[in-house]
Amino acid sequence: MDVSFLKPVFAASGPFATVCADVTHTTATADAELDLRVRAITARLTEQGAPEPVVEAVRSRLLEGNEGGEAGTLKGRALVVAADATVVLDQALVDAPTREVADWSAHPDLLPVLRQLPGRVPHIVVLTDRTGADITFMGGPGQAHEEETVNGDTFQIHKFPGGGWSQHRYQHNVENNWIANADDVAARIASMARRLSPVFVLVAGDVRARQILTDRASGEWADLIVSMDEGGRAAGADREPVDRRMNELVAEHEARESAQVLEQLDAAGAHGLAVRGSGPVVEALRKGQVETLVLSDEPADATLLVGRTPIELGADQRDMDALGTHGEVVPADRALLAAAAATDAGVVVAPASALPADVPVAAVLRYADATTDQ
């Protein structure tokens, strides 16, 4: 995962309020329920010493759903608010969090956020019918979503039973209109695919429209198509089956990506391009060697020392003395994430069960040198 979108967080001044909240707003009593959840979260922040401007910034963002805003369509939301009450991160979550987070501390608690971010796999969803399509691109964190509606020719769009030579011509014209509309949709998808490099294109809607559209898929996206029978573009059509299938595909690709990185750790290790364990990873981050940082989704209670910049890392004060600075004690996962963002390293949060025993962190390297400790 590209974590460059976290740079504004690390550029801000702490302490920070980190929040992962359930903002579901779909029932008749949603206003009251959301208000109670927000009160509980802000009370926890206040108890930890968060100043009122910070607490108010959290409160106002989370309550946007009660004003009928876009937040009302969300199920989960993650916020990071800096000491000056600036909201430096505001992200939708895949779902309502299984464990809500309300943390006020010197360094933001971002691992729970990364575990639940949506759209970490860039993809396109297409709801099509014989007149056009609604096309949505969902990118990784920090990457803007795009939505586009293609409305083609609706004249002579429906076939009906009949006979005679004029009927055959009419039917032919209808089919041609369907094809022309599909060509317009296919061209828009191809343009989006060239620019944005999705990993899959989910196509839902009218069966004949899907068939015509996928027959016209070009090289940019032809091999990325996943077609489904449920869901559609018509007013009142249930979007839930499409969202469910989309989330399944995202989860499958994320799991595949994690598995590939773990395999890469083994393969790269044979050539000196991978390290495991806190000490070797810290050294590699200091030297800017890390291409991909692999963190366990169940971090240990370990700490590191951090100096004046995120890459001034050490396990103890002797390390900091060698760097010519003093260190502040920081939870290890928070320090490692900050160093990864500072050095443009990717991050993969892997299940603890997938990592070797007693190895909560590992890294694939950009290069190795004579001092690289494997």
General description of the model:
The structure is a single chain. The chain is globular, with a radius of gyration of 25 Å. It folds into three domains: 4-116; 123-238, eRF1 domain 2 (Nucleotidyltransferase, domain 5, 2-Layer Sandwich); 257-365, Ribosomal protein L30/S12 (60s Ribosomal Protein L30, Chain: A, 2-Layer Sandwich). Helix 2 (30-47) runs antiparallel to helix 3 (52-62) and helix 5 packs across helix 6 (207-215). 37% of the residues are buried. Residues 68-72 and 154-168 have low confidence and may be disordered. It has ten helices and 16 strands. The strands form four sheets. A five-stranded mixed β-sheet has the order 7-6-5-8-9, sandwiched between helices. Strands 3-2-1-4 form a four-stranded antiparallel β-sheet. It has a four-stranded mixed β-sheet with strand order 10-16-11-15, sandwiched between helices. The two termini are 23 Å apart. By secondary structure, it is an alpha+beta fold. The longest helix has 32 residues, at 165-196.
Could you give a short description of this structure?
With 374 residues, the chain is of the alpha+beta class. The chain contains ten helices and 16 strands.
What form results from the Cα inertia axes?
globular
Q: How would you spell out the order of helices and strands?
A: HEHHEEEHEEEHEHEHEHEEEHEHEE
Strand order of the largest sheet: 7-6-5-8-9
Query: Could you say which structural class the secondary elements and strand pairing correspond to?
Result: alpha+beta
**How many strands, which pairing sense, and closed or not: the largest β-sheet?**
5 strands, mixed
Instruction: Report Rg.
Output: 25 Å
Mean pLDDT: 84
Percent of residues in beta strands: 15-25%
For the secondary structure, the number of strands is: 16
Helical coverage, percent range:
25-40%
Oligomer: single chain
CATH superfamily (homologous) name of the largest domain: eRF1 domain 2
